[in-house]
Amino acid sequence: xxxxxxxxxxxxxxxxxxxxxxxxxxxxxxxxxxxxxxxxxxxxxxxxxxxxxxxxxxxxxxxxxxxxxxxxxxxxxxxxxxxxxxxxxxxxxxxxxxxxxxxxxxxxxxxxxxxxxxxxxxxxxxxxxxxxxxxxxxxxxxxxxxxxxxxxxxxxxxxxxxxxxxxxxxxxxxxxxxxxxxxxxxxxxxxxxxxxxxxxxxxxxxxxxxxxxxxxxxxxxxxxxxxxxxxxxxxxxxxxxxxxxxxxxxxxxxxxxxxxxxxxxxxxxxxxxxxxxxxxxxxxxxxxxxxxxxxxxxxxxxxxxxxxxxxxxxxxxxxxxxxxxxxxxxxxxxxxxxxxxxxxxxxxxxxxxxxxxxxxxxxxxxxxxxxxxxxxxxxxxxxxxxxxxxxxxxxxxxxxxxxxxxxxxxxxxxxxxxxxxxxxxxxxxxxxxxxxxxxxxxxxxxxxxxxxxxxxxxxxxxxxxxxxxxxxxxxxxxxxxxxxxxxxxxxxxxxxxxxxxxxxxxxxxxxxxxxxxxxxxxxxxxxxxxxxxxx
Amino acid sequence: xxxxxxxxxxxxxxxxxxxxxxxxxxxxxxxxxxxxxxxxxxxxxxxxxxxxxxxxxxxxxxxxxxxxxxxxxxxxxxxxxxxxxxxxxxxxxxxxxxxxxxxxxxxxxxxxxxxxxxxxxxxxxxxxxxxxxxxxxxxxxxxxxxxxxxxxxxxxxxxxxxxxxxxxxxxxxxxxxxxxxxxxxxxxxxxxxxxxxxxxxxxxxxxxxxxxxxxxxxxxxxxxxxxxxxxxxxxxxxxxxxxxxxxxxxxxxxxxxxxxxxxxxxxxxxxxxxxxxxxxxxxxxxxxxxxxxxxxxxxxxxxxxxxxxxxxxxxxxxxxxxxxxxxxxxxxxxxx
Lengths: 535, 336
Hints:
The complex is a heterodimer of chains A (535) and B (336).
Chain A: H1 2-12, H2 17-30, H3 33-43, H4 54-65, H5 69-79, H6 82-89, H7 101-111, H8 116-127, H9 132-143, H10 152-163, H11 167-173, H12 185-189, E1 205-206, E2 208-209, E3 223-229, E4 232-239, E5 242-247, H13 263-266, E6 271-281, E7 284-285, H14 288-292, H15 302-307, E8 310-320, E9 323-324, H16 330-342, E10 350-352, H17 361-369, E11 376-383, E12 391-392, E13 397-401, E14 405-416, E15 425-434, E16 437-444, H18 450-462, E17 466-468, E18 471-473, E19 479-484, E20 486-489, E21 497-500, E22 503-507, H19 519-529
Parallel strand pairs in A: 1-12, 2-13, 8-10
Antiparallel strand pairs in A: 3-11, 4-5, 4-6, 6-7, 6-8, 8-9, 11-13, 14-15, 14-18, 14-19, 15-16, 17-18, 19-22, 20-21
Chain B: E1 8-9, E2 14-16, E3 21-23, E4 31-33, E5 48-52, H1 56-63, E6 68-71, E7 76-79, E8 82-88, E9 96-102, E10 105-109, E11 131-136, H2 148-164, E12 168-172, H3 178-189, E13 195-197, H4 199-211, E14 218-220, E15 231-234, H5 242-245, E16 250-255, H6 262-267, E17 272-274, H7 282-292, E18 296-302, H8 304-313, E19 317-320
Parallel strand pairs in B: 3-4, 4-5, 5-6, 10-11, 11-18, 12-15, 12-16, 13-14, 13-15, 16-17, 18-19
Antiparallel strand pairs in B: 1-2, 2-3, 7-8, 8-9, 9-10
Helix pairs in contact in B: 2-3
């Protein structure tokens, strides 16, 4: 654990990519092999089974520290992280237990599922033998949510530097659902494929946002344009003996969308397609809201399948006849995709995303303006000669999204943030006018600078009307312009409206609260947005 | 007729009706008793000031022409119907708690305080009282300070590592108290190199040195450009500024109690945080309160709501006073 704690401290003390890569690469060279595997797993968002719930942890820590539970609850939002709160309130350790990361994880695995007293005793004993940083990391193993400021790409580069294996191979190898307890470091970085690889996805290529216009992109003929669909990005794998559907978050979602399973019979073996899962009813494409019912469902009832069916809109072909196509130019991959899609039987739940033809950028800009009518968020631009990149590589893929909707609203509640934003008020609830009332309709916590958050925090502290735990009610005085991507009806919200991706565009210091928008303006938008889409 | 309270809470600050004076008022008043020289406690515009002799030189420097009188620690002064005296608060050199006795009832205003002896400030002395008005800047159980010598060792190691890497160490610390306390603590360990100072730090350091506080030699950056062997002590607002960039390759760190929280450390950006505060930590606050023997406690500036509830839970008659004192701020934009 000492080596892991030292790595964590080194990563935490810098924002320089070079320093982080160096720290990781040194760790991957020197740490015990199985610790390396676990570190890779933790940095990839995997975690051991939960040996205790967060409620148990805070109860046990409160008892051990001799504090009432409410005081621990009051401290938590100030610290901003439960694992850290517990590490800080506990009395200093009386012992020094020297165990490796893997040994601690094994201990947690052994505790999992045991009776409460055994788990409590095990965790208290662990706390009593760990120094503060190690204690914090130990708690993080239980609560999850490691944020060490290490992106997947950075970890991959560090592993490549430590192992001498090319980073594209490592990136691919780390995809999918390998389990750290059953994987060795050699297996993990080995370029040789094994049986488990048959359903492994490729790393997704990601687009960058196109700020301003496309003028700097060169001739329009160099680019393929298509709608940016509003659904769930997914990868379809059809290989001999394997059919799998992966989300961009690398979750296996095959079972959540059983109606797509039919493709396992019709797609040629050795096919991997990059696509978007969208809601698709009798009238064709449906708004994202219809898809929401399907998100997060592990099992799907017949009723839900009938109510909210889905389809795939295919973007790209990554593997054809078992051959990795990612280094081929987009135009070649797209031709292969069209060939495969046209060979599918009629009614197959997969279509190719239509390419949008345009003589010049102006014509394409005009198309983009119509995106909402097509239930799209804007356009995607892909350079015809570009390979399928690993992750986000600026220059070849651009998302040219529509400008968001916006509305001026007033802040009525403020809550402190988490992690690096703990002790700052950053999470706000906003209201619009409805007659003489103010109706809360959206929450947002991003879009302002740290300096603005600091200023607002000082204002919130000086203007609190009521406190509810970490939430403060404030006078309706600060006005913000909120941006959002979509709007839908909602029975769960008091306003009757739910927004998609609301965030703060700017703080309108120039506007008094008397000039904010009304709920009626959103209702009108809702009506316009939900007029039936054009076919 | 019910007796008037010894101190009442007014819009200008804590007021003693029996003596017709205020303690650390935030609006101009005729007579102000001042606990210490930090700007949220010692404000300008009062007609007459009373503070410890040790606190006065910095106050005079910061506030300009003031009509001020000094008392030694423990010396009593009758003001109208009130008997007042100043007692060491251990916060910064010259800082005091103020004891006010009216008709046999004793109230103590803590000002800012810490319990650990820092080798420079007059060490905190508990004062028995009936009512204690306490700060609680770090009044949550997440705050536990390490001994000063441990932190000084960490700073010295960081300094030595920077020196080896050819970078100047720049340490952000508040100009009155924290900066000098760290100098003295580092000197006690044996300095790895010369200490250089930002102008704002040098001024206070020189004043305290002239008062007789034992401080190591310092070299203002404006007179001699520091090299990698130096530790430069600067106000926190100078970290990351154009001033710091002009020094050359630097490694920056901030010395503050807030550095105990990872979120605050990360928000401040890269660099190192050293956890050291001139305010009492959680065990310190609890011990100080217990040692006053007071049955009634008022909490001010800090996590007052939680702290008041905790005190009530411990059986105290506990309340909250709203003041405009700030304690240790998290952000360098607000100088203390």
